[in-house]
Predict the 3D structure of the following.
Amino acid sequence: MKTVFWRTLVIIFIILAIIGAILPGMPTTVFLILAAWASSKGWPQMDAWLLNHPKYGPTLRNWRKNGTVPRKAKWLASIMMLISAIVMLFTPAPVLVKIFTNTIMFAVAVWLWLRPEPTQQSKQWVDRALTDADILIDLSQQILFLKKNKTCYFISSGKNGIGETENSGKTPTGWHCIAQKIGHNVAENTVFVGRAETGEIYDELLDTQQPNRDWILTRILWLKGLEEGINLGEGVDTFERYIYIHGTPEKNPMGIPLSHGCIRMHNTSLIEIFNTVDENALVYLSKEPLNFTFF
């Protein structure tokens, strides 16, 4: 019954989003955010489809990671829903449809205004990161930006979300450096365990034989936190948590958080980054959206 409930909510929100795409004044993105939220509770296939949608996917992934809504966006969505509610009153739609639709929009507006807003402090950290970091990682959009080459790469961060706590399986945020580069000149798809080569080369046969293995391939960039009490020190230490930027099989999708806390990348992209940056290069992992057009 619980699955049926969540899937019914997903369908309702998607229908409202479709109506929003047709009816002037009614928002689409807000209802898709709600659809993604409901699908995460009981419809994983729909959740994956929404998060990978070519048009709305980045916004939905940003919401999933960040959870904040700018005040300007709240006002815009609320005004659009108010206009839509007024228009709905003058349509020939059945009274029950009008009541249901307008009630849903009112509830969504209340929910929207209860969401937290980005802080000024967060903006200041982001501005500094855009200036000083060698590698920028936007966890909200699942993108890594290599400043020297001005190139963006899709990544996959922790499936359990964002966080610094030891044994949480979450990806840390804040200022880091590359403490060690491991895997110089080894063959692509070389398998690592405990940062040591196993002598294996990943392929489909090996994957079939060990389907549940968390593959660490090709290169490792071992991260060290630089902020005491946040990502450095007892219980939150990125280095002691063995958080890497590392290679993963090409079959593993990028743009979706699926790792055990590390930053996964496809091997060719990882090699490009590995060959470009030095040890001690600065890395900033942000839960706030980053504007890469800055460059």
Remarks:
- The chain has a mean pLDDT of 85.
- The first strand starts at residue 135 and ends at 138.
